[in-house]
């Protein structure tokens, strides 16, 4: 496997970089075209199949979209994130929707502040591609889960032919991006920490490039430069990405892995 897929970064200060990226933009994630879309949240609930007695843990919860989608279906949800400004948004959102069975914890996915074997359902969405040590984060997933507990992962996962080109755009937009993994890499990494894959699929979305840039409040010059870079894709990368201007907006294909696992 490409050693980058394990996500170990030599640079220290991963947490500082994450907070610098997400702190100023936190509120945007409560209304993001992707993160707050009810259809995308239904997709999480369908994948996770939450049970009424579950203690659920949503890691890198951002503004709590996923945690709050699970809350009506489980006994209690903990939303964990590194960025204090995100957790402040979580508290506001929980109050707005009247969710009483949620708690918010500041912490690192790679060093979870929980005992072993206590969580029934672990979820993480749109975040593992930021983790400074994905190997370590997945070991933590397996450690905190009960036997028979489930872990569900939704993260960006382009086809191999488009990955390198899309990586340039991801890094240009967000320096805390590490790498998007392919389904094959995900399956291998999960197997190595003893999580059994029950289902793994990649699905494609018609992606709103400007909306994606707006989530992180990218300045207009950089948006234009990144749009030109995306549109300059060649060969198989271009055939996969299919950049297209429609109704004055740049659209292109974007992919996520949707993976459900169990701890045997
Ligand atoms: C795009 S947002 C996640 C959105 C959210 N999961 C959702 O479903 O709407 C990415 C989040 O990952 C968090 N994050 C990144 N690395 C982290 C880590 N190692 N531990 C905990 N949170 C992390 C950031 O602070 C940020 O809030």
Range of helix content: 25-40%
Bound molecule kinds, no repeats: S-adenosylmethionine
Q: How far apart are the termini? A: 25 Å
Q: Which architecture of the domain at 14-158 and 176-206 and 255-262 would the CATH scheme give at its second level?
A: 3-Layer(aba) Sandwich
Q: Which fold name corresponds to the CATH topology of the domain at 14-158 and 176-206 and 255-262?
A: Rossmann fold
CATH superfamily grouping of the domain at 14-158 and 176-206 and 255-262: Vaccinia Virus protein VP39
Q: What are the low-pLDDT stretches, counting only 5+ consecutive residues below 50? A: none
**Can you write the helix and strand succession as a string?**
HHEHEHEEHEHHEHHHEE
**Using only CA atoms, what is the Rg?**
18 Å
Structural class: alpha/beta
CATH top level assignment of the domain at 14-158 and 176-206 and 255-262:
Alpha Beta
Total strands: the figure is 8
């Amino acid at each position: 496997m490409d050693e980058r897929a394990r996500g170990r970064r030599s640079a220290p200060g991963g947490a500082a970089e994450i907070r610098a990226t997400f702190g100023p933009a936190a509120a945007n994630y409560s209304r993001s075209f992707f993160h707050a879309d009810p259809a995308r949240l239904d997709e999480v609930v369908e994948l996770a199949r939450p049970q009424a007695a579950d203690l659920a843990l949503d890691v890198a919860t951002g503004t709590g979209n996923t945690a709050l989608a699970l809350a009506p279906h489980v006994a209690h949800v903990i939303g964990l994130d590194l960025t204090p400004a995100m957790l402040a948004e979580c508290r506001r959102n929980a109050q707005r929707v009247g969710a009483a069975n949620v708690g918010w914890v500041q912490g690192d996915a790679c060093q979870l502040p929980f005992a072993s074997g206590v969580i029934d359902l672990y979820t993480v969405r749109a975040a593992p591609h930021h983790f400074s040590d994905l190997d370590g984060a997945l070991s933590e997933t397996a450690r905190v889960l009960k036997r028979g507990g489930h872990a569900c992962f939704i993260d960006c996962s382009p086809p191999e032919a488009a990955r390198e080109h899309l990586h340039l755009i991801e890094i240009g937009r967000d320096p805390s991006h590490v790498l998007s993994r392919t389904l094959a890499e995900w399956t291998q990494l999960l197997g190595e920490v003893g999580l059994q894959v029950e289902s793994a699929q990649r699905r494609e979305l018609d992606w709103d490039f400007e909306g994606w840039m707006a989530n992180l409040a990218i300045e207009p010059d950089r948006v234009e430069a990144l749009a030109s870079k995306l549109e300059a894709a060649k060969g198989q990368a271009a055939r996969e990405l299919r950049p297209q201007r429609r109704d004055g907006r740049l659209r292109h294909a974007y992919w996520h892995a949707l993976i459900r696992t169990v701890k045997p």
